[in-house]
């Protein structure tokens, strides 16, 4: 009987001792994931004010203040996450769970491949000397990490969709039109539909007078000039070479690489699309070869609703 009790006591002591062996004095919980996303848009959605609410899990909630406030609080499951400080490529987050408040840091690390980023979300917990408390802390840390996994999985899904990070789908492409006739003018105000199609019609008449055909949609570039003026250049693809005449110039479109995207909406949408493409070029260190242009897929002179305008955007690059 005594031997049995001694054996049980020994087993108990070994079990308690193993708690100190298995669970270290400092619990380090780290969630690391690979994002197929450039570090700059990832940083925007993590460290810039107002962006967490755009990707936070739908089953979670934003419970404090406005998304632009510093100490924003979000809830996922039964755990609260409060943003306490924002840096470039890092956010300090207070985790409130199981009656505890734990300081954590979510950091981004750029990789050699510009389309990849490493994300690490980490916190440390000092383990108690009491074995039962130590075990409880270990289980709590596991629960928090599992909850963090749900958050980071949602974040990864969001960031790996270009429509989310840049607002449009940008891809490498090109144009089949190579022969163009162009004309341009400078206006005291931003060009409207009537201004654009006035030049389009002039080119059409010029093509007809030279027995040439129109082979594609009008192409437009609008450039801001000093003193609030705007230069507008319009081109029409054609099926033959035509000598320059007056304000009409024959051009051969350079066969090269283009970034392209399609947007639907008015001038504001088009300009936002070009801004997104410029940011993409900067993020991925692409080199601009020539001025960008838009191809007017929808005949805006016939469709008064700008929300229905479809436009293809092109950026010539090396």
| Topology order in helix (H) and strand (E) letters | HEHHEEEEEEHHEEHEEEEHEE
Helix content: 25-40%
Q: Please summarize the sheet with the most strands.
A: 8 strands, antiparallel
Q: Based on Cα principal axes, name the global outline.
A: elongated
Uncertain segments are 5-18
Q: Structural class, judged by helices and strands?
A: alpha+beta
Strand order of the largest sheet: 8-13-15-14-10-11-9-12
Q: Give the tally of β-strands.
A: 15
Give the distance, in angstroms, between the N- and C-terminal Cα atoms: 85 Å
For the record, the count of structural domains works out to 2
Radius of gyration: 30 Å
The CATH class name of the largest domain reads Alpha Beta
CATH topology assignment of the largest domain:
Multidrug-efflux Transporter 1 Regulator Bmrr, Chain A
CATH superfamily of the largest domain: Regulatory factor, effector binding domain
Describe the protein in words.
This protein has 318 residues and is of the alpha+beta class. The chain folds into two domains: 142 residues, 2-Layer Sandwich (Alpha-D-Glucose-1,6-Bisphosphate, Chain A, domain 4); 147 residues, Multidrug-efflux Transporter 1 Regulator Bmrr, Chain A (Alpha-Beta Barrel). Helix content is 32%, strand content 33%. It contains seven helices and 15 strands.
Features:
318 residues; alpha+beta; Alpha-D-Glucose-1,6-Bisphosphate, Chain A, domain 4; Multidrug-efflux Transporter 1 Regulator Bmrr, Chain A; 2 domains; eight-stranded antiparallel β-sheet; seven-stranded antiparallel β-sheet; 7 helices
């Amino acid at each position: 009987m005594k031997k049995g009790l001694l054996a049980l006591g020994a087993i108990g002591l070994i079990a308690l001792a193993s708690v100190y062996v298995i669970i270290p004095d400092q619990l380090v919980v780290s969630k690391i994931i690979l994002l197929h996303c450039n570090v700059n848009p990832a940083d925007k959605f993590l460290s810039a004010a107002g962006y967490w609410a755009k990707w936070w899990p739908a089953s979670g909630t934003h419970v404090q203040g406005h998304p632009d406030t510093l100490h924003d609080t979000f809830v996922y499951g039964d755990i609260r996450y409060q943003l306490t400080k924002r840096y470039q490529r890092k956010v300090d987050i207070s985790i409130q769970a199981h009656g505890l408040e734990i300081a954590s840091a979510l950091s981004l690390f750029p990789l050699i491949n510009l389309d990849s980023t490493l994300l690490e979300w980490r916190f440390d917990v000092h383990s108690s000397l009491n074995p039962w408390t130590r075990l409880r802390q270990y289980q709590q840390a596991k629960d928090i990490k599992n909850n963090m996994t749900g958050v980071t999985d949602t974040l990864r899904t969001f960031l790996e969709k270009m429509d989310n990070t840049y607002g449009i789908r940008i891809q490498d492409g090109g144009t089949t039109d190579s022969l163009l006739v162009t004309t341009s003018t400078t206006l005291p105000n931003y060009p409207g539909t009537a201004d654009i199609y006035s030049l389009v019609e002039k080119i059409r008449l010029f093509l007809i007078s030279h027995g040439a055909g129109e082979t594609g949609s009008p192409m437009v570039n609008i450039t801001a000039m000093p003193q609030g003026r705007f230069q507008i250049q319009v081109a029409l693809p054609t099926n033959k070479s035509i000598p320059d005449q007056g304000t009409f110039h024959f051009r051969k479109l350079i066969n090269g690489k283009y970034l392209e995207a399609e947007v639907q909406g008015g001038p504001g949408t088009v300009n936002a699309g070009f801004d997104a493409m410029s940011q993409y070029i900067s993020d991925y260190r692409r080199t601009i070869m020539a001025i960008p242009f838009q191809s007017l897929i929808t005949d805006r002179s016939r469709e008064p609703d700008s929300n229905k305008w479809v436009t293809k955007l092109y950026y010539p690059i090396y």
